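Researcher: I'd like a structural prediction for the single chain below. Treat it as a standalone chain; there are no partners to consider.
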Amino acid sequence: VQVEILKKWVAQGAKYAVHWAYATPVRPLVPSVKKSAWVRNPIDNFILARLEAEGVKPSPEADKRTLIRRVSFDLTGLPPTPAEIADFLNDTRPDAYERVVDRLFASPHYGERMALPWLDLSRYADTHGYHIDSERQMWRWRDWVIEAFNQNLPYDRFTKMQIAGDLLPNATREDKIATGFNRNHPINFEGGAIPEEYQTAYVMDRVDTTATTFMGLTLRCATCHDHKYDPFTQKDFYRFYAYFNNISEQGLDGQNGNAMPFLAAPLPEQEKELAQIKQKTEAAKARVEARRSAAEPAFIEWSKTAEVTLANAPFAKSGLVAHFGFDNEKPDADTEFKGKVEGKPTYVAGKFGKALKLDGASYVTYPEAEKATRFDTKTPFSYSAWLSLNSDDVVTLLSRMDDKKDFRGWDCFISGRQIFVHLVNKWETNAIRINTQMALDKDRLYHLTVTYDGSGKAKGIHIYIDGQTQSLTTTHDTLTGTILADAPFTIGRRTPNNPFKGVIDEVRLYNRELNTEEAAQLTEYDGVRGALAVAPALAPTKAVSASPLRDFYLRYYDQEARSLNQEALAATAKQTEIEKQIPTVMVMQEREQKRESFILLRGQYDKFGEKVTPGTPAVLMPLPQNASDNRLSLAEWLVNPKHPLTSRVAVNRFWGWIFGVGLVKTSEDFGVQGERPSHPELLDWLSTEFIRTKWDVKGMMRLLVTSSTYRQSSKVTPELREHDPENRLLARGSRSRLPGEFVRDNALVVSGLYVPTIGGRSVKPYQTPGIWEELSIDPTSASFSAQSYKQDHGDALYRRSMYNFWKRTVPPPSLQTFDAPEREFCLVRRSVTNTPLQALILMNDPTYVEASRKFAERVMKNGGVSPSSRVRFAFEWATGRLPRETETKALLKAYNTQWTRFNKNPKAASGVLSIGESPRDMTLNSAELASWATVCSILLNLDETITKG
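Model: Treating it as a single chain, here is the predicted structure.
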C-alpha cells in the first residue's frame, strides 16, 4: 500500500511541503463571521468561523457563579469565596467580569497556579531520584518561577534566563537561580555507578527537557539513531547535546545535598540581617584600627620577646605531640619524627620554610610516631595543617586507619573539595563521619584545624578553615567502640585509591581539644613566625614584615583591642549562624576548559563516533552566522521571532492549561506523529500576537479568559455530543476535574485551614506512616537524607499542595492518586483517571477528614441556626452555587441520620472529631459537630466540588 501511495505521489509531481510546525508562522487575517455580536476578541472570530462553516452554534454564556469559579481556578488554582461570588453577582457594570479577571491577575496566587505545570515540565523535586533518592534544595528555583509569573516576566526573557541566565551580561543572582531549570534532573551517587555514564545521562535529560518544553519536539528519539519520523539526525541530537555538555558537574554527586555547581541564595530577610551584622563588624574593626596607633609603644616593648613568647604560647606548645614541618632531614625536637618516604615527593616553599608536594604517587608514613598519634574514642585530640589542592579527586590528607580491619581508625580526606573527617570502629555501622559544606578552591593555600572533644559524638568535632568555624553535615553518628588502629600514621594517603595531590605543610597534632580562639591563632602563627625569621633584628616599626606581628599582638595580646576584636568575632559568629541557614540552589555554570562532544554510537556513553560542535537541528531556522557556540546563543535562537516553534508551543500550552486541551492536542509533540492543530490559523494568530505583544504572558492569558469562547456554558446537548464528542470545535465551555493539588487546596480553603504563605521550604503534611520507610534504601541510616518521613506541624500542614515535599520515588500518595507525576522526567500533560481510590482519599485521608471537621465548625458558627440555612451555606462554599431543593433534602436526611447515630454513640463522635492537629472548638456540641462534619465530607466528595465546569 505504501509503495502505491509513493507511486501516486510521484505521478502527481512529487510536490513536497515542509511540515507545518517547522515553518515560521505567518499572521493570518482575522476571519469575518455572521454572528459578530458574539465576538469579544479575535479568538472568537476564528472559533465562530469554524462553527458557522460546520453549521454549529456556540453555547450560551455560563452563569456568573460558574464563570467566577471557573476563572478563579484557572488563574489562581483556588476557589472563590461566597463573598467574592456575591460581589460579582451584585456588580452590574458591563466590565464586571473583566474586573474579576484583573483582580485574579493581581493575586500572588496567580504565580503559584502558573508555576505548577512548569514544575512538571522541569521535573522539579526535593530529592535526587534513583534508588537512594536523598534530599536536595531547589525550592529557591521554584519560588523564582512563581515570582517570574507574578511579575509577568516576558516569556522570551523567562526562556533565556532558564537556558542561559548565567551567561547573560552582568548576570545577577536571579539570572543564575533561573538556570536551575536544567539542574532539576535526577542525580546519582550510588556506589559502583560509573560517573561518565551518569554525566552523559544528565546531558541527555537536558536535551530532552529543553526540546520538549520549548519546542514540543521528541528530539530524544534521535539519541541512538536518526529519528524514525521527524527529520532529525543523530548528529542533530548530539550537536544540541554539546550546548549542555560543558557544565562543571560530576557524574556522581549529591550525597550531602545539592550537587555542584550550586549557588547560595539568601532570602531578602537574611540579606538584610547579614548587612546589619556586617555594619557592626566593620564598626568594631574601625575601632581596632583607631587603637593601633595608641598601642604602638606597648607593641614595641612586647615585640622584643615575641619570638620566645609565641614559641611557648599554649596554642603552639600545650599538648603538642607531633609536628611535621618538612624543614629538617633529621628531627630536632621531641615532637618531630623521621618518616618513611614512598615515591618521589618534592619540596617547595611553604607557609614557613619548606612544604611537601605530593603527586598522587608519593606519601610519608611515620612508624616512630605510633605513640604520639595513638588517639582513641574517649581521647580529645586536634590536628592542623596547611594544604593546597591541585585536583578534584578524592584524596587523603592524614590518616591512621586500617582499611583491612573495617577501616578502624581516624582520618581526614577530601571529596568534592569538601573536608571529611572519619572516626571509625567498624565502617559503616559503628562510626562518625562529618564534612564541611564549604568546598575548597584549587591551587589556593588553606589552613585547616580539626578538633575533637573525646565525646564519641559527631557534635564533638569542629572544623576550622583559615580560623573560621565551618558549617558541617553529619552523615554517620553511631560510634561506640575503640578507634585504635595498628596502621602507621600517614601523611598523604589512606589506601592506594586516594593519594593526596597538592601541597601540605606544618602538620601539627595535639592530645587535647583546641578552642576556637586557639584555632584562629594557629592559623596566623606560621605567618608571624615567618615575619620574625625574615627580620628578627629590625625595629618592628620599620620592618615591612612587622605588620603580621603587629596584627597578631593587637588581636590576642592588647586587652583593649582584644575586647574590640571579640565584638567583631561575636558578629562574625552570628553571621556564620545565619549563613548556615541560607538555602542553596543548583545552577548551570560553564567549565573553563570546554568538554569535547561526540556522537555516541547507539547512545552508549563510552562509544565515541564523530566529534561534533554545538548546533541546532538542520531542518529548523539556522543560527546567525556570528552566533557563539554556547547556551546563550541557543536561548537567543529559541526566542528569535522567526523561530517556528517556541511561540506556537507556548501559546498552545497556555491554551491547554485554560481549555483543558491544546489546539494541538499532543502538546508534547509538534512533529509529524503529533496531532495537527484543530484551528491552525488561530494557533498562528496567537503565536504572532504573543510575539507582537513582546511575549506578554498575562496579556495572552487575559485574551484567552476574556473571550466568548472561554465564557461559554459547559453543558452539552445531545447534538453537540454526537457532532463533537471531544469538544475540539469549542462549541461549549470546557469541564475537567481539578488537578490533585487543586483538589486538596480547595478543601483547605473551604474548611478555613488554608495558610496562604507564598514560597519557602517544602513542607511535609499528613501522610500514611511507613510508605517512605518501605521504599527507602535504609530508613535508619544516617548516611542518606529523606529516607524516613518526619511530618511537619502547625502551619506547614495547611500550605498549598505545590509546596509538599516531593520525593521522586514516593510522591505524595494522595496527590499521586489524583494523577500527580513522579517528576523523574519532563511531563507536558498529566493523565486524568477516575478511580475508587480517589473517593476513598476524599473520605478517609486525614487532610480531608480534618477539613470536614473545620468546615463543619465554620458551618455551625457562620451558617445560621436552622439546618436548611446551614446546608445552603455549606453547599455554596463547596460548589460555588446554591443547592436545589432535592439536594437540600438529601443532605438534611444525611445530617439527621448521622445526628441520631452520634447522639447515641459519643465515642464514635469523638473519634471523628479527634483527627487532625488543628484545635477543635469545644463550645460546639460533639454529636452535632460530628454530624455536620459528615455532611461536609459528602460535599467535599462531590464530583462538582472537584470539577472546574
